[in-house]
Amino acid sequence: MLLEELANAAGPSSYEGEVREIIVRELKDYVEDIKVDNMGNVLVHKKGNGPKVLLDAHMDEVGLIITGFNDDGTLRFSTLGGIHVAVLPAKTVLIGKKKLTGVIGIKPIHLQSKEERIKPISISNLCIDIGAINSSEARKYVNLGEYAVFDTKFEEFGDGLVKGKALDDRIGCAVLIEVLKENYNCNLYCSFSVQEEVGERGAFASSYCVEPDIGIAIEGTICNDLPGVSKIDGATAIGMGPAISLMDKTSIYDAELISDIEKVAKGKYILCQKRKSVASSNDAWSFHGTGEGARVAAISIPVRYIHSTVSIASLADYESTKRLIIEYLKTLK
Amino acid sequence: MDKTLEKLLLSFGVSGHEQGVKDLLIEELKGIDCAVKEDKMGNLIVRAGKSGQRIMFVAHMDCMGLMVTNIEDNGLVQATKIGEYKAEELSHAYIKFENGTLGISGECSKDGNSIYIDLGVSSKEEAQKKVTEGDVATFVGPILDLKDYVVSPNLHNRVSCYIMLQLVKEAVNSSKELYFVFSTQGEVSGRGARAAAFLIDPTYCLVLDAASSTDKALGDRKINLSKGPVVSIMDKNLITNKEVLDMILEASNESKVSVQRTITDCETEAGSIQKEKYGVKVGTILMPVRYKNTMSEMVSLKDIEETTTLLTKLF
After folding, report:
1. With a threshold of 0.90, does the pTM exceed it?
2. How distant is the Cα of A291 from the closest Cα of chain B, in angstroms?
3. Across the interface, do A291 and B114 touch by the CB < 8 Å criterion?
4. What's the rounded mean pLDDT across residues A37-46?
5. Which of A225-239, A316-330, B70-84, B168-182 has the lowest mean pLDDT?
6. Residues B57-85: pLDDT tens digits?
7. Is B45 left (phi over 0), alpha (psi -120 to 50) or beta?
8. Maximum C-alpha span of chain B
9. I need a labelling partner for A281 at 20 to 30 A (CA). Which of A194, A301, B16, B91 fits?
10. pLDDT tens column, B221-265
11. Does A51 touch chain B (CB under 8 A)?
């Protein structure tokens, strides 16, 4: 499954190479105009006469970067993108291109003082153990600045669900690849963007290049449909279809676009929902934040436990999102 | 009470949903010798004067408001803030939706980011007949004409839009190439203004916005009403360009309108405008507003008149 290959590939912010290779390989039989820009974004163009539309999915996942070597052979690290430190202890990671195994360690509870037990942990309390006995040995295997990703294998499970790392936003990339296999009247550009997780950096370059009339970000988004969580804090729910954003930290989404997209969903019997939270940011920021700006929308697939070592999404949501985008693009003459 | 100012204060225009106030502005601009167009961000761009040195004036036409994010089972409507304001200072105010529905802003959420709107209904079904997720609302209230002062919700930044309308009328005789941008999404980091600056690529730019006066009961009396427009030397994102500052001070001398200089940690659109294209020389002219970001904002009519007079000297 394409989504499996994409989710398993290593591609934290600014190290998206593995993911880029898969995307370019998948697209070469369907598009002629494909290039990689200075930032590393994959930019695709399917010529058409209608309005200029830019669809965007980001290739990068949240991950780690090696920042130092402890005397005892363990590695110090920092995050690439937002990761809550509580999800890190006792997890396995794969370091660099050679995918060297490391384990994130923390001082065991029975050795912690009373104060340490109640104080929230910080990254400085953690280390990556690669089994080296001292820093000289560690330096033989790992370089400063190498990346690390979570060692999570993609798997289908439950009733039509998938679990894996990086579903945000490999699931968006998979949707976009499939969308590009069809043909449309509109003047379609797609950006598989880099460095979204560290500030939507790649997308600013592709937006500036494309100058879209309409920009749509295809994301994996927060989904906290858990007991005791309010609808707003929950944001979206698994199995309820693509989530259409109203507003977030950096964008107010275009009311007319939202209405058009919902009309398509209704007409084609595609279940969809509204993203109820206004937290967070995405590449849509760059569409209206560069050049002359654009009208923007965001369509997201609900991803439970986003930005952690393993997240969950629904294959039905994936299919519905893909269908909704294809049907919407077809309405643009 | 000037009819145009009153109409501006009553027209609907929350960030991202500015059609109401835009329609009014387009109507007010009819009969004035100028070119009017809209850009991709929905900004209203008015061009007047001749060709030559390009000066851009920009005032955001949107107000702060609320957007519906969830409708509770008991009919209360949870809405998130649009704009940076303290939710507690705008609770128990009257609100009006774009579709005309009226309600009140009730309690605030614990994190202060949303307000529960009471539509006077007792069930989700009844509420859904009136509003849906994504609907936006503005704060409404009486306009008090206190002879030398005006009190109303939404005075900022509608009073700057009012000033800019007067400027367009005066601009016809200018030898410079003047642009007056009524911009969108000013309450949310000035997104419209940035795009307009990119499009126009002006030599100089002046941002017309508002500054909180400090002449309230417990204020330090450094920024006062009726003492002229506020000129910021430095704010959170901008050190005002020296040339623009000198232009403003020269205009102040020429028009005999004194200005109040300030250094603040507030931000305006000027911060993002200065970084556009090859860089833009930008400064700010701020209307002093007492009780800013409340239902009872207050401005001085003298300040409106004097600010307009000062700015015409830049033509």
Report:
1. yes
2. 6
3. no
4. 97
5. A225-239
6. 999 999 999 999 999 999 999 999 999 99
7. beta
8. 62
9. B91
10. 999 999 999 999 999 999 999 999 999 999 999 999 999 999 998
11. no
- Asked if the Cβ–Cβ distance from B78 to A252 is below 8 Å, we say no
Please confirm whether the linkage preceding A169 is cis (ω < 30° from 0). Answer: yes
**Which pair of tokens denotes residue B140?**
């409404």
CA distance B5 to chain A (A): 27
Nearest to A295 by CA among B79, B14, B192, B19: B192
Q: How many helices (H) and strands (E) in chain B?
A: 8, 17
Which of these, B110, B114, B109, lies nearest to B95 by C-alpha position?
Answer: B114
DSSP label at residue B281: E
> Regarding beta strands B281-289 and B230-234, do their DSSP bridges make them parallel or antiparallel, or are they unpaired?
antiparallel
- Pairing of β A311-314 and β A161-164: antiparallel
Q: Identify residue B112 by its one-letter amino acid code.
A: G
> A273 CB near a chain B CB, below 8 Å?
no
End-to-end CA distance of chain B: 27
Tokens at A140, concatenated: 């033989």
Please, which residues bridge with residue A274 across strands? Answer: A244
Report the length, in residues, of chain A: 333
Mean pLDDT over each residue of chain B, to the nearest integer: 96
Q: What is the pLDDT of residue B163?
A: 98
Own/partner pairs for A90-94, CB < 8 Å, 24+ apart? A91/A150, A91/A151, A91/A309, A92/A150, A92/A151, A93/A64, A93/A128, A93/A148, A93/A149, A93/A150, A93/A151, A94/A10, A94/A148, A94/A149, A94/A150, A94/A151
Asked if B191's CB is within 8 angstroms of A293's CB, the reply is yes
Contact B181, B57 (CB under 8 A): yes
State ipTM.
Answer: 0.90
